[in-house]
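Please, structure for the following, as tokens.
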Amino acid sequence: MNATIDDIYRSQSRRVLATLIRLLGDFDRAEEALHDAFAAAAQQWTEETIPANPYAWLVSAGRFRAIDHIRRRTRFDASRADITDSLYPEGEMMEIAESQEIEDDMLRLIFTCCHPLIPAEAQMAMALREVCGLTTEEIAHAFLVPAPTVAQRIVRAKNRIRAAHIPYEVPAKTELPERLAQVLHVIYLVFNEGYSASSGAAIVRADLAAEAIRLGRLLLTLLPDPEVAGLLSMMLLQDSRRLARTSASGDLILLADQNRSLWDGAKIREGLAFAAEAMAGESVGSYALQAAIAAEHARAITPDQTDWRRIVALYDLLLVAHPSPVVELNRAVAVSMCDGPAAGLRIVDDLLGEERLARYHLAHAARADFLRQLGRDDDARRAYETALSLCHQEPEQAFLHKRLAELAGKTGR
């Protein structure tokens, strides 16, 4: 039974939290209610009595417990009575319907986290905490900053929301364009955490990837924009490869070695259509370009048919639209497929020499791969060891151990 509740927590807890924030009007109160609701579920549910709609049950349970807590704390103080009345109108049980209002709660949460009154670094930290459910330590690792710094940013952001009475809502359509970039970035981060989990035993968190895609679809209906279409395209095309990315035992399978018959054709067709829409806009942004890169991989029936020259050209454009050391790293891999591993190695060495990716394990892993292909086994071994020391995801750790074992077998060590 505990395993069932754990599964429901992974798949439903962020949606439950988003709705509780709307109903209770306070992040901390909603988080406490969320934990109370799951504690109640652990006590009351059996295999035979799991609700048909766990989400609705958990929202109702959390809301009721929040009301009870408020009443006990205030001892029915008249000055706080209006709070409980607003949360619990006429004492009636709240009915949770599968309505647009409920479906918008996650998007409301993202817009709240991305309000202009909240500093940008706090926006991202808060979104990863509240929308993705990442721990403070995981967020700190992602941003390469100390965990206490992340915790302080989140606390200050919540205080700012409370003090400024920032509304928990999707803004009017006239306000959407100026808020779009940050919201797209949060949805992108949610998808990335779902597509390649930052830590843990699994490569993919399918629930987060699916939620990001759902939010992308919803945002596109609110604001038809080439960049929204581009982000949705990129997510669909990358998620189409999900079943081919791991073996039956959970081992990582690189793109070149994947069984492409396992790729989801329906997602590819839809993603390609959105990619064409994004690239047809008056201006082409970073998400449209990322979609175009993903489309090149999706079109290749075999790895040899991949148009790496075009991918390099698209990365060149992406570096103009969105300069980033991670984009430069990805471009280095594409360059190596065109011009050989030595060309890719020169780019990565420059990046690491500037220390822009010194703590990024994939940069050291790419460098190790180039060195291995060039026959520089001792250097490759050291680079793999560095990558391993920085990696927090178990399947990637296993893959790096495998590479090290292959080198050890080759050299007889």
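The radius of gyration is 23 Å. Residues 83-102 have pLDDT under 50 and may be disordered.
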